[in-house]
Amino acid sequence: MRWMVLMLLLASCAAWAQERQVVPLRYELWWDERRFSLIGMEQTAPGDVKLPKLVEPLFFVNPFSDDKRLFALAKEDGEFVLYADTNGNNDLTDERPFRLQQRGWKRVFGPIPMRYQINGKTVIRHIGAEVTKLGDGRVFFYLLVASRWHGTLMWDGKPVSVSVIDGNCDGRIGEGDSLIWDEGGEERHLPAEGQVGINGRFFRYQVAPTGEELVIEPIQVRTAIVKFQGERLTLNVEDKSGHWRLEGQNGELIAPVGNFLLVGLEISRKDKQGRIWRLMANAFGPAAPKLTIPEAGAVLNFEPLQVSLVYDRKGDEFEFSLDIKTANGMRLSGLMVDYRLPPEPRLRLTALGGKVVAEPQFHYG
Description:
Blueprint: H1 2-18, E1 21-24, E2 26-39, E3 41-42, E4 58-63, E5 68-76, E6 79-84, E7 98-99, E8 101-103, E9 106-118, E10 121-133, E11 139-155, E12 158-165, E13 178-183, E14 186-191, E15 193-198, E16 201-207, E17 213-218, E18 223-227, E19 232-239, E20 242-249, E21 252-256, E22 258-270, E23 276-282, E24 290-293, E25 298-299, E26 306-314, E27 317-325, E28 331-337, E29 349-350, E30 356-358
Parallel strand pairs: 15-20, 18-25
Antiparallel strand pairs: 1-17, 2-11, 3-4, 4-5, 5-6, 6-7, 8-9, 9-10, 10-11, 11-12, 12-13, 13-14, 15-16, 16-17, 18-21, 19-20, 19-22, 22-23, 22-24, 23-28, 26-27, 29-30
């Protein structure tokens, strides 16, 4: 009997230990023009920087993992070329110029190989860049994601693709960067470090600063049930331990007991016609509502939605917009029905006597 108890205990410990995963991630070139970082312009280059001969130069400085780096836009045959301090030696005379090339529907610079020092080790990371010149002469310079780290973890016995994105293009994985968990085409977008609770299973995870490794391990927490009306619910909350992504389905979400700030929610609900409505809302900083989950459980209450009509007068014209918030003050960031945008609503304007004078239609934008 003692041997059976011991065997069961060892089997239980082994099963628990197997859930901790160290996932190696491989580095690869990978463009994503949707992820960009706007870089501020400098009036002049820093005094200690060596410069080649430049025509109509514009200078931009961006912080990276080991130091600030200088970028210089210049004109060549009527087009912009880009010089980047790829090795961090404050010398652009040893750098080759990058020229614009077509990528999809954009013209971009790169990929640009940037050399950094991370934990005493020299690494090469690639970024892209884009320049936009407005009609009034203003120039905007952006850094683009041009690489990622990619690997596979096991979830419920099945392989799940994971990618790590250096969203702020600073060469180091940390705050502001993201982990994309792709399970059968359904993506979860997470910070590079945090905690997840999926249908009552809780894990802590962290991506190494170099991006080369993802560690995910189970954790035990006191839990309670959050009731909601709908098929699926995702909550993004924060407490003293950091960021949590919590998921539930069929009207119940198992969550840690505690006091949180609710920074994001996504809920799916089916209507009488069988259509799936998906609502997304978020709040940041002081605007984030408090969410208390006691051991007795809680009920998520974000309805009724608060709709405000906002207008702005421009000469003889009025511009109307709708500002939609949840009952707890979160701002709507999206509303879909069967994975499509719902029809745009109309605004009916009437005279004091009730006569309809105009019915303009709203549009997304």
